Amino acid sequence: MNLSQLTITPVFPLWLIVLLFLLGLAGVILQYPLIRKRLGDRRTLVISLLRLVAVFSLVSFALSFPGGEERRSGVNAPGGSR
User: Which residue of 11, 42, 48, 78 is surrounded by the most CB atoms within 10 Å?
Assistant: First the structure.
């Protein structure tokens, strides 16, 4: 598979994906000091990292990058192969 054959076809417009990503990132950053007072540094860091992973995963699925897909086109020979 060549790089020229790959195309990125986002499900949503790219500007909306970037906007939602920035809102999610801002939410993680703004909530960190609020929950740090209640839970402590270590638990807050773990929760914030899990939230960041969730935001990054949603963005990657929204972009629908065909990373593992490979299209094959061809005609099988009549009679099969032996």
Answer: 48
Mean pLDDT of 49-59: 87
In-domain check, residue 40: yes
CA distances from 67 to 22, 30, 33, 79 (A): 24, 33, 36, 34
DSSP 30-80: HHHHHHHHHH-HHHHHHHHHHHHHHHHHHHHHHHT--SS-------PPTT-
Is the residue at 33 inside a domain?
yes
The domain of 52 spans 7-63
Looking from the CA of 18 toward its CB, the CA atoms found within 13 Å total 3
Tokens of 35: 């929950």
> pTM above 0.85?
no
Q: Is residue 76 part of a domain?
A: no
